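[SOLVED] Need 3D model of a two-part complex

Original post:
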Amino acid sequence: MTMSDMTAQRHERRQLWVDRSERIGLIVAWLVVIAAFGIARPGPFLSWANFSTIFGSQAVLVVLTLGLIIPLTSGDFDLSIAGNLTLSAMTIAVLNVYLKLPISFAILAALGVGCLIGAINAVVVLFFRINSLIVTLGMGTFIHGVTLWISNSNTISGVDFALPTAVIVTRLFGIPLAFYYALLVAALIWYVFTFTSAGQQLLFVGRGREVARLSGIRVDRVRAATFLVSGLLGGLAGVLYTGTTGSADPSSGLSYLLPAFAAAFLGATSITPGRFNPIGSVIAVYFLVTGISGLSILGISTFVQDLFYGGALVVAVALSQIVRGRQERTS
Amino acid sequence: MKHGWKLVGLAAAMSVFGLAGAAAAQDNGVGAAKADIAKYSKIPAFIAAGAPFDAKACMHGKSIMSLPANSSVPFLSTIDAAMTKVAGMVGFDFKVWENQGQVSQWVQGMDFAANNHYSLVDLLAGTDPRALGPQIKAANDAGTTVTGSHVTGYGQPIPIAGVTPIPIDYKEAGKLIAEWPIVKTGGKVNAIVLVTSEVLSTDPMIEGIKEAFASCPDCKFKVIDVSLTDWATKIQPSVQSAVIADPTVNYIIPIYDSMSQFVVPALQITGASDHVKISTFNGTPFVIDMVRNGQVEMDVGENLDWIAYGLLDAQMRKLCGFEAVTDPKIPLMVFDAGNAATAGVPAEASRGFGDAYIKGFKALWKL
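Solution:
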C-alpha cells in the first residue's frame, strides 16, 4: 500500500464520519436538549405526561410541514398552505355547526377544498408559467378573504365531538391519535420518496427541470401532482386543527406558516442532508417543540421561544453548510 | 382622663378592625369575592352616566366617524353596526372606517376624518393611539375631537396627547375573573394567568386580578405573556408545559376569552380538563357556547349593544359641551353554566342582559 493509498483511505473514513454525523446531527441535538432540560427540571420534564403532550399536540404542524416539503422537493413553494388549513377548518365548522351536516361529510368536503386549492395553484403556475411563490402568496390571501366571508369573521365552536374524540381525546400508549396520523403520513411520504419511481422523478425535477424533461420525465405533471398533494395535506391539517380545538377561527391557522417552513428547512439538514425529507421534518418539529416545552417548564418568557425557533434554524443550517463546505473542499 | 377615653376608643376600634381583618384573612377573601360574583350575576340595571339632554337638538349638524381596530373582528363590527343604528335613531351622520387592522389604513382613516371635518373621530377598542401621533395632532388642529373608546380602564390615561379616553371597568373585570376561582376553591387558587401585555387594557385587568388575590393569602398565580399574533402557536404549548410543571394548578385565567379556544385543547391533551378550570372575560358568543358545553367554567361578558349606546352617549356629551364622561356605566355580567343559555343557543352578542338600557337611553336623550 502506497502513501497516497493510505491518505485516500484516511480521507474516505473521515468523509464517512462527517456524513454520518451530519445525518444524525439533529437527533443528537434533540437528545442533548432532552438531557439539558431533564437535568434542569427532571420531575416534570422527564415525565411521560410531558412527552405524550409533546408528541400529541403537534400533529397539525407536522402535517403542514410535510405538505410543504413535497412542492419544495420539486423546486416550488406553497405559501397558501396555512390559508388552506384555515379554510378547510372553517369549511368543517360551517358545514357541521351552521348547516348541521354530518361530520364525515364535512371532513370530506374540507379535504376536497384542500385539493381544489392545490389544483388551482397548479393550473395558474403551470398554465401561465408564473413563479409559484407569487401565485401561492396571492392564493393564500384570497382564501383568507373567503374564510372571513364564509365565517362572517366569527370563531365557530361546537363541532361534533366525534372529531376531537378521533383526534386528541382517544389515546394509544397515552398519546393522542393525532400523533399516529401524522406519523402515518410521514411514513407514506418516506416510502414514496425512497422506493417509488414517482419519488425519484420528483427528486429529478427538483434538481433540474430541464434535465428532467430531457430525460423523459413529464415535469408539468409531476409539479401539478405536488401542488395537489400539498393541497390535500393542507386540508388534512385543517381537519386535525378542528379536531384539536373543537372549533375553527378565521385567522389563527395562518401563524403556522413560518414554524412549518422552519421545520422543513431544519429537517433538510438531517437524515438525508441537503434534501427535504419527511423523517427529518418530523424530527425537526419535535426537536423544536421539545426545546419550547422545556423553556416553558422552566418558566421562561415566551419571547425566548422565538429566540429558540429562529436560533436553532440558523445554527443548524449554518453548521450543515460548514460540514458541506468542508466535504466539498476535501473531496 | 379625656386622653384615657380616647385611648380606650382607639384600642376598641383597632380590635374591631383587627378582627375584621383576621376574619377576612380566615375566609381567604371568599366572602367578598362571593358578594361581587352575586352582584354581577343578576341582569344589570340601567344607570345614566350624566344628566338628561336633548340629543337630537345638540347633535344637529354634527358628525362622528368610528375607526375600529379591525372591522373583521366580530366584537368590533357588532358594536359599529349597533352605533350606526343608534346614530340613525338620534339623527346625525355616522360613518365607520372599514379596515383590516393595518396601521396604514388607520392613518388613511384619520386623514379622511380630518379632511372631511368630522366633529369627532373615535378610536374604537384597540386602534392604537400610540401609532397615530401626527394624525391625532392634525385632526385636533382641524377641529376634530378624538376619543379612544374601550381601550383603557377607569383613571388610566391614554399615553398620547389629544385623545379623550372613554374607559371601561377593566379592573373590575380582572377582579371578577380572579374572584370566581377564589369562590370555587374556597380560597385555594393556584392559577396560570394568560395576558397580552401590548394591549392597553391588559394593565388595569392585571391590577384587578392582583387586587383580588391580595385578599386571598392561600392563593397564588403565575403570569404567562403571549403576544396577540402568537396566540395560535404559543398559548397551547405554554399552558401544557405550565400544567405539567405544576400539577397543583387548578385554574387558567385567560384575560381575553378568545384565548380559551387554545387553552381547552391544552387541558384535554394533558388530561387536566377535569381538575383545571377556565375563568375568563369578554362574553364572546362562541366562548359562552363553551361555557354552556362545560369547556369553560365562567365568562364575564359585556353587552355589545349597551357598549354602543354607552360610547355614543359619552361622545355626544363631549361634542355638546357637557362634562367628560369618566365612567360610561357599561355593566359586566357573569355567565356560567346556570345562565349561559340565556345568551341564546348558539349564543348571540348582546343577548342575556335584558333590554332596560334601551328605554333608559331613549329617556336620557329625550327621544
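Edit: The mean pLDDT of chain B is 89.
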